[in-house]
Design brief:
This protein is of the alpha/beta class. The chain is built from 11 helices and 11 strands. A hairpin with a 2-residue loop joins strand 10 (282-287) and strand 11.
Length: 318
């Protein structure tokens, strides 16, 4: 092995650049070249590949986004697309690859592993929806961005005795909603794991208002509701004024937190170490503050642990 490829795929996450830097630095330590693949799996198919130097990645750890760019590739989802990717890897003499991304990206990594490419995955997703790892790169930064936004919303809500529905990202995982509520004082939360119907939300709000709390936050995970419909329902049911705020892509940007930078660095080095030891088909993660690795095929099968965590933390919001 004399070359390692690295790509970022799917949604960008703060800390991806720190992971890229770690891969390059660790590989150079072993006198290996690193080939940067732009635009994820689609860029791999299209041959958008160049050598990454230490000087090129020296000052990128504090930058959000990804210098390698990213995309979602429908072509790679098909067998013909993956065969093209395999041919391109051979053309550039790359037989080892580090993939940084979320669930879909790691599934793609598993497909390449099955085709004979040595592949290690690194979890880079703000959603924190990979159950084999306690944290994915980007989650902590995004959580702090949400908390900053929530603090500003709460100031205005308090001044006007308003209720605001805040929609956060997370796709099918409620970690961003749950953790931001715990850390930022969100009064009512609804997540895919614990979805509340309209009447339950109204009941909880009525109880708080009756108790003298007239400014309230309702935090929900994206894709769960028609927010305008929910807003109208609450206003008509409780005869109060409600605002709706969708944080959107503001959550993805920004300089990564110290936690995400260090986590990305540790995971990047571990990925190179695994490849050096001849391993493949593994995803790097963190459990109980220890960097671990697990088979790619098992990265999302431990839902019991996640449900237990939710039951424990929700008691703080009761």
């Amino acid at each position: 092995m004399n070359k390692i490829g690295v790509l970022t795929s799917g949604g960008d996450a703060p800390g991806m650049n720190a992971a890229i830097r770690a891969v390059v630095k660790a590989a150079n330590y072993y006198h290996l070249d690193v080939m940067g693949i732009q635009y994820g799996y689609q860029g791999l198919i299209d041959g958008k590949i160049h050598r990454l130097t230490s000087s090129e990645v020296e000052d990128i750890a504090d930058r959000g986004g990804t210098i390698l760019k990213t995309s979602r590739s429908l072509e790679f989802m098909e067998e013909t697309g993956r065969k093209k990717a395999l041919e391109v890897l051979g053309k550039f003499d790359i037989n080892s690859l580090v993939v940084i991304g979320g669930e879909g990206s790691l599934k793609g990594a598993e497909k390449l592993h099955e085709l004979g490419i040595k592949v290690i995955g690194i979890p880079g997703t703000i959603d924190n929806d990979l159950t084999y790892t306690d944290y994915s790169i980007g989650f902590d930064t995004t959580l702090n961005t949400i908390l900053d936004c929530m603090g500003k919303i709460k100031d205005t809500d308090f001044s006007h005795d308003k209720t605001t529905i805040v929609e956060v990202m997370g796709r099918y995982c409620g970690d961003l909603a749950l953790y931001s509520a715990l850390a930022g004082g969100g009064e009512i939360i609804s997540t895919p794991e614990r979805k509340l119907d309209f009447d339950t939300i109204c009941s909880k709000l009525r109880s708080r208002i009756t108790g003298g709390k007239n400014d309230n936050l309702v935090i929900v995970t994206e894709r769960m509701y028609d927010l305008q419909e929910l807003q109208r329902y609450i206003e008509e049911k409780l005869n109060i004024s409600v605002r709706t705020t969708v944080l959107g892509f503001i959550q993805r940007g920004g300089n990564p937190s110290a936690f995400d930078r260090v986590l990305a660095g540790e995971m990047g080095v571990m990925a190179v170490e695994l490849l050096m030891n001849g391993q493949s088909g593994q995803a790097v993660g963190i459990k109980e503050n220890i960097i671990i690795h697990k088979e790619l095929e098992n990265v999302n099968v431990e839902m019991t642990e996640k449900q237990d965590k939710y039951r424990l933390l929700e008691k703080l919001l009761h």
